[in-house]
Each structure stands twice: as structure tokens, then as C-alpha cells.
Give the backbone structure.
Amino acid sequence: MDVHSVLAQARSQTSGDFRQQQSQQALQQTAMGRGGGQIPSCPLPAGIQPPCQGQMFPSFGAAGGAPTPALGTASEAQALVLARWNEMQQRQLLIATGTQPARGLSGPHGSGGHGTGFGAAQNEKILKSESVEAGTSWSASAAMPKVPSKPQNLKSQAETRAISGPSQTELDSVTGKVASQSQTQAGSKNLQRQLLRGHPVVVGIILAEMEQEITTLMCDAYGNFLCSAAFQACTVPWRKRYLERLEPHIDRIAKDKRGTHALQTLIGTLTTLEEQDILMRAINRHVIELSMDNSGTHVVKKILLCFMPPFVEHVFVAVLGRLVDVVNSQHGLCVVKDLISKYKSPGRHQDLIVCKMSDHVLDMVQDPYGNYAIQHAMEVWGVPTCIRILQRLEGQVVQLSIQKFSSNVIEKVLLKAQPDMRWRFINELIQTDRMATLVQGQFGHFVAMRAVESADDFGQVQALLETINRSLGQTQCRRTKSKWEKVITAGAARLNDSNAKRASTKTFQNGDIASQRHPEFSASDIKTFQQAFGFNNTWPDSRGLGFPGIAPAGFGPISQQPAWGNR
């Protein structure tokens, strides 16, 4: 049987086209699995059926290049055609995957030109003969394109995954398992890594499965970390869906020690008016409750920091309505201090807070926490802004000075108040009947010490020390006396320093006058000369030293002595 008969018989097989398509699809799938792309199809010569499933493509023999008969073929002629078609398919596969060596096609045991296999020249000969038979022109450069010896590397594995998409293993690791994995440490970290990679399919699966259990996950030991990562990875529509599910449970989540962290992360990501409005509708009914809670106060503080003014106004109105209750709470104090810091500039909000504080200042200054709000207002706004609050304290200085918490406020007033108000406060302490009460108190000596250190009028310091001395004689407690003796010592030292400073200033003024008229003597030289000879301020010019206004003891006044310029 000749070749033409074999080809005619092969054309008569009806199943050849179907088996040809099946083999080409298998090759393309193999190429996509290795290189991520498709290869151009190489049609099988008409009448030649591809190998059946389970058969191997025919290989090539020794260095001579003679093909060996293919498995399952009818004759050597059909095997030769199949070998050529197989060679073309392998060549296209290597070109597509970027693994073809520079010298030619690789054999089963090495690169082209080594071991068994066709060389580059023989490949060109085969391709040229096939193109001539087909009646087309042939170009060596077109038939044998240059392929880089090394595959082109991508920048990172993350880009590779982004181009090729998630693998089936990654999809299987998250699909239907988000709720269970998020409550374990390893599972939560794995899901966070998947969110960080950012493939839309995987992220969508995680967000969709989290939606059903979002309230539980936010309060879970490991799920709250996943929720924080998911809020940062999701889009505005997803956040709206989460907010709608959280709305009925927002107070419980905010007061949970783990849920508060996830909720604060969510608040930090809300950027649109619609998102912030949904959350404020849920929190507006619980502002006071959350402000005085250990964990909820951080949520309210986060709203004051991140939300737009229309929504912060809801918090301001709610807190101002119950200012005394909130400010006298350990955690509510933090919210009030944030409001004071937020409204630093003069305006309506500042005036409302000052008015409310002035109405309840006596209650606030005596509270363990409320007194810090008054002090913070003086530090942030300044005493002139808080003058209305401080005026309510006048007449109560002694009573407030003997209490533990209010004495801190009185000390702050003495330190920062304007001179006229400081004078009035100290004047209340000088009165004898009230000083006796102050001396008997446990904290009064702190206020007295501050008054001695900050008084602008030294006469007032002297009067205060005299009043303390008279009242201290009625005290029998040695410990109390030792505390107040320190106050007296500090006051006496300040008076001595002031007297010494005035005397020194007068002496240096005289020295400056002498040094101006006699530049050859400095002021320090004149002072040293005074101390050595005991000269007073009436020493004449008779000794020839020419120090006007400085005379030794026993000489007449300077007006009776000749001046230096008249000599």
C-alpha cells in the first residue's frame, strides 16, 4: 500500500476531526497551565488522525534523525506525518511558554544540538518543505523567531496572582469557611492576608460571608482584627450594608472591649455624609450612655475627631444637656475635655459651655473628676475667657482651699489669674478668722504656699505671713506646724530676696553713674572698692578719686564738696 492509499483511507475516518480538536484543546490547556497564555493552533494535515488518548507523541531516534514508528499507527508513512505535526505542536508550545532554547528545539534528554533531537537546520528544512508544498513563501526569520533564553520574570508573586487570578486552592480555602476561620488565630491571619492581596473574587467571597456574622465577629477575640481589615478593604456600598446590620446592636458593640476597636476602625473609614448619617442615627440615642462607659467613650471621642460638624453637633447637644453628670464621670470627663479642645476659638459653642460650667462650678470643682474640666478650660481657653466661671468662686476661697480636689483649682487660679483677681483671692486668705480654718485643714498649706510664691504685692506676702504666725500658735499638732513652717520659711526667703534685689539695684545704679563719668572704672570695680573701704553715698571728690556721690564716713554731704569738673 502506497502513501496516497494510506492518506485516502485516513480521510475516510469520520472521527478524525473530533479527535483533532480534542488534542489541540489539550495542548492549549497545557500551555496555559505552564505559561499563562494560549498558543497558536497548528492544524493537523488532512487525513491524519492524532494519537489516541493514552498514546505518546512519536519521539525521534539517534543522531541520524530517522523517526521511529509511532505507537498505534498503521504504517511508517502515517507515522512520519504525525511526527512532523507533533514537532510543530511542540515547537509552538515551547514558543508560547518561553522555554525554547536559542539553538533550536529541545529533545527529551537535553537542549537542541545535544543528545537526541532535531537541530535548527533540520527544523528549517522541514518547515521550508511544508511551506513549499502549501504554495506559500518561507522566511527563516519568521519560521524561527528569536526567543529569550530566560523567561521574562514579573515583579512579584502578587502581580503574578493578580494577572492569572486566584488559584483553585485559594478559592477553596475561603469559600464557606470564613465564619469558622475568622474565630481562630491562624484562620484570621490567613483571611487578612487574602484581603491584603486584594483579588476581587476572594475579597468578595470574604465580605459576603462576613456580612451574616458581622455583629458576632466584631466582638470576637480574633474576628475583630479581621473586621478591622475588612472595613479598610471594602467599598462604600459594602460599608453601608454593614452599617445597616450593625445599627440595632451598635451600643452593645461599642461597649464591648473588643468590639470598640473594630467600631473605631469603621468610624475612621466613613467618608461620605450618607455613611456618617447611618451611624449617627444608631448612636444618637446612646451618646450619654457611651460617654460614661469604659469602652464606649473611645467611640464618642472617635466621632468627635473624624465626623463632619453637622454630626458632631449631635454629640455636643447631648453632652451639654447633661454636662454635670458627664463631667463628674471618670470616662465622661474625657469627652468633655475633647469638646473644650475642639472649640478653642471664641464662638457659640464656647459661650454655651462657659455658661453651663459657671452655673455648676461649685459642684464641679469639688468633684474628683469635674475639677479637671475647670482646669483644662483655663489652660486651653485662658483665664480671660473663663472669668465668668472664676468669679463664682470668690467668697468661697478658704472653704475650697481646705478640700482635696477644689484646692487644685484654687492653686491654678492663683498661678494663672490676672493680678487683680489674684489679689482678691489672696486677700480672702489674709483675714484672721478664715486663716485659722485654713491652718487646721489638711490641704490648706498647698494653697498658702502657692499664694506666697505668686503674690505680686510683697506687702501682701508680709501680711499673709503675719496672719499665718498668729493662727499657727493655736495649733498643737507638730506635723501641721512643720508644714506651715515651710510656708513661712519660703515667704521669708522671698521677702529677703526682694529686699536684697532692691538694695543691689540701688548700688549698681550708683556704680553706673560713676562709671559713666569715669569710664576707666567699671561698675564692678566701684562695688569692690565700696566693700573694701566701707564708703557710703556721700564720699566727696577730696581724695582725688573722682567718684561723685560716693564718700567715706565722716565727710560732709556731697553738695558741700567740690565737683570733679571744677578742679
Q: What stands out?
A: Residues 432 and 470 are 8 Å apart (CA to CA). The radius of gyration is 48 Å. Residues 494-566 form one domain. The chain has a mean pLDDT of 74.
